[in-house]
Design a protein that fits this description.
Order of helices and strands: HEEHEEEEEEE
Shape: rod-shaped
Structural class: alpha+beta
Radius of gyration: 27 Å
Strand order of the largest sheet: 5-6-7-8-9
Distance between the termini: 91 Å
Number of helices: 2
Mean pLDDT: 84
Oligomer: single chain
Low-confidence stretches: none
């Protein structure tokens, strides 16, 4: 009889330990935004494409993933993002203002003089990015900084 009571007490203690451990784990879990649908590379991320999922804090690399929806909405996927998987910080970027191969207005300014010409963007870029552009008249390749209005401004030393 005493052995049976001891076994029951041990069983109850083990069950209580499991419940306490589960509650502690739930309290420490991190909720991260994850895709609700497959998102292809180049797609703009909308709020309806995202959901949240809980991850244990001891998951390897959990600090390398984006933690807020507001960081994702309006940005562009650099690679395919799979449903339910956390999104690495390097998997999204600002949307491009200029696409690769697009004709762009090239502005050169020096000492109050402004020269405008056109070129073909050899790289895609967002505002502030340094890209290469081929001058369509001369074929010369220059480095230019993408402006918010979609033009490029020749970088110093190009």
């Amino acid at each position: 009889m005493l052995n049976r009571v001891g076994l029951i007490a041990r069983g109850l203690a083990a069950a209580l330990l499991v419940l306490v451990s589960a509650r502690l784990a739930a309290a420490d879990e991190r909720r991260l935004p994850v895709p609700a649908v497959s998102i292809r590379a180049g797609d703009l991320i909308r709020d309806d494409m995202l959901t949240e999922r809980a991850f244990a804090p001891n998951v390897l690399g959990v600090a390398m993933f984006i933690e807020g929806r507001q960081v994702l909405v309006g940005r562009m996927a650099r690679r395919a993002l799979l449903p339910g998987q956390p999104i690495p910080t390097n998997a999204v970027e600002d949307p491009w203002t200029i696409a690769r191969g697009a004709m762009v207005k090239v502005v050169v300014e020096d000492s109050g003089l402004s020269i405008v010409t056109y070129g073909a963007a050899m790289q895609a870029g967002a505002p502030g990015a340094l890209i290469t552009v081929r001058n369509t008249d001369t074929g010369v390749i220059i480095r230019a900084i993408v402006q918010p209005d979609g033009t490029v401004k020749v970088a110093d030393g190009s």
